[in-house]
Amino acid sequence: xxxxxxxxxxxxxxxxxxxxxxxxxxxxxxxxxxxxxxxxxxxxxxxxxxxxxxxxxxxxxxxxxxxxxxxxxxxxxxxxxxxxxxxxxxxxxxxxxxxxxxxxxxxxxxxxxxxxxxxxxxxxxxxxxxxxxxxxxxxxxxxxxxxxxxxxxxxxxxxxxxxxxxxxxxxxxxxxxxxxxxxxxxxxxxxxxxxxxxxxxxxxxxxxxxxxxxxxxxxxxxxxxxxxxxxxxxxxxxxxxxxxxxxxxxxxxxxxxxxxxxxxxxxxxxxxxxxxxxxxxxxxxxxxxxxxxxxxxxxxxxxxxxxxxxxxxxxxxxxxxxxxxxxxxxxxxxxxxxxxxxxxxxxxxxxxxxxxxxxxxxxxxxxxxxxxxxxxxxxxxxxxxxxxxxxxxxxxxxxxxxxxxxxxxxxxxxxxxxxxxxxxxxxxxxxxxxxxxxxxxxxxxxxxxxxxxxxxxxxxxxxxxxxxxxxxxxxxxxxxxxxxxxxxxxxxxxxxxxxxxxxxxxxxxxxxxxxxxxxxxxxxxxxxxxxxxxxxxxxxxxxxxxxxxxxxxxxxxxxxxxxxxxxxxxxxxxxxxxxxxxxxxxxxxxxxxxxxxxxxxxxxxxxxxxxxxxxxxxxxxxxxxxxxxxxxxxxxxxxxxxxxxxxxxxxxxxxxxxxxxxxxxxxxxxxxxxxxxxxxxxxxxxxxxxxxxxxxxxxxxx
Length: 702
Ligand code: ADP
Ligand code: ZN
Ligand code: ZN
What we know:
Blueprint: E1 5-11, E2 22-27, E3 36-41, E4 44-50, E5 72-73, H1 82-94, H2 99-105, H3 109-113, H4 116-141, H5 156-170, E6 177-181, H6 187-200, E7 204-208, H7 215-225, E8 231-234, H8 240-251, E9 257-260, E10 272-278, H9 295-306, E11 310-314, H10 319-326, E12 331-335, E13 346-351, H11 371-383, E14 386-390, E15 399-402, E16 418-421, E17 426-429, E18 435-437, E19 450-453, H12 457-467, E20 473-476, H13 486-495, E21 501-504, E22 517-522, H14 536-550, H15 555-558, E23 562-567, H16 573-579, H17 583-597, E24 604-612, H18 615-632, E25 638-640, E26 644-651, E27 654-663, H19 666-686, E28 690-697
Parallel strand pairs: 6-11, 6-12, 7-9, 7-10, 8-9, 10-11, 13-23, 14-21, 14-22, 20-21, 22-23
Antiparallel strand pairs: 1-2, 1-4, 3-4, 3-5, 15-19, 16-17, 17-18, 24-27, 24-28, 25-27, 26-27
The chain binds adenosine-5'-diphosphate and zinc ion (ZN) (2 copies).
């Protein structure tokens, strides 16, 4: 064994962050960092990644003879690129998760199941298939007569954006580029041209989108533009086998373009030349469990690490990104005009205050559609145009209610209402999934007359059907789109013109390119103006701008396109900015508010979350954690707020308590978190009954 090498191997242990989780093994052959290996761990054999040699701080104390040998190396598979390892290390440290947990969790799950010969076989099969496809493609295209791909002539603004991109790309350390373009301004064309440039250089392009639903459309556009290039998707709806083969295509350099959701930010790409983050403001980029990373932020970091251009695209950038652009840290490039010269739709506010007040409690009143709004809907029907009517949250849900005794359909396991699902006649909790058949009578008083309250999309659909006889109405929300292919077929109906009025939640406002919609109605968006979530106004503005972008995509129809916003607060500055389609004004007012309140991007936040059956146990853990933080942060650079119940305080019988940690300095906050983590692990042992705890760095909501 004299020739045996000592290797530090990272395996999946959810322990401390940093490299504490790297274990030492012996190998007969030298293996480069990033090599995948199978190693014995206890009585099991698990997947591991070779990190740096002799990385463990107390390596000299280790008795080499006592080390176990690695199982098998995945020969023939190139090691994960150094930049990939650096990205994983950064994410592990920044989001306070064990390197093993983080690095292994972003690999395709199928890899864990395969032994070395199994993977080699899979790989050989894939390579053969790819080679076959390539020859077929080449034959079909008759290489001496390359098929002309239609590319539109660029608009002036697109041209200018690409000139900036080219200049950035030539820099040794390109700053990220913010492509601030209104809907329909041709952002995607800019992504395509940018990708074209890096592909021509023999590099790979990574394109991130917020939602799986948005991948097929974009995939089709990229595939049409780059025939003969291999394009792979990466998202959670792929089969395990697909995920593995797409991942291999990326790592082996077979794939030229990787298009995917947030997990694709970890695609191993040896020739990466460009990262695009479309709809960079979208909250879906933040992972909400495990390692709670922001794929948008990691994309920016990855670009920095690999000295690559990153394009962040949005009509309504996140305030974090916007502020960096204002500071000059990102290059902001506007696309203010719609392709084809179409105007943005006219935004009209309907002042709900002029209508007679509905009797009873507001949340029990029927959904009000203003007469003017109904009239606009009828006009569209007469002209054969489409309308989109949306409620901005499924959560304004039809809760069942007894008018006699006040009973409401609560969830016995959560601090939440269970929601009435009419078609299945069930009451379902959207937090824990607990579902029951609707009771025949009020469980408390026996009253037979229990009825839905609130304002769900189903109810809206019913009301519209009543108000617009003969209209073909389709509903899209998380329920109606649950079944496989249901969303696609619904959308196809809309495209085919078989639908007059599309009703739904915010799901319907995202990205879909509906040509014939000339009216968008926001039924009751006000709640977000006064929500406790400090990002709610930002989201509302983005949502309404995006929804407005659904109208008049067709230039000819743009002239008569309208957005109606039904509001009790027509004077609100958010709506004033919306009317002018003025993101900059909205952002300025929001940034001023955030600065005054000491909120991001003017401060940096983390949440420590604790869960237990008994809230007192979770709270005691957090209080002990706060005391530890006080000792570690003697200078007082970090503020630790008192523990409070989470916004949904109880889920499936488990109480959730959280504690906010804030600092004006990101570095100070990071230092505290790193020092805190081992203390928290120790504290956990002292708090029996604690179910879970976790740190959420840069939380979306507090
Ligand atoms: P965005 O992503 O900004 O909403 P898209 O890139 O989808 O906008 O562009 C809107 C429409 O305009 C698409 O149908 C696209 O094919 C078309 N388009 C984009 N750029 C051009 C151009 N330079 N000339 C003609 N059509 C274009
Ligand atoms: Zn529940
Ligand atoms: Zn009752």
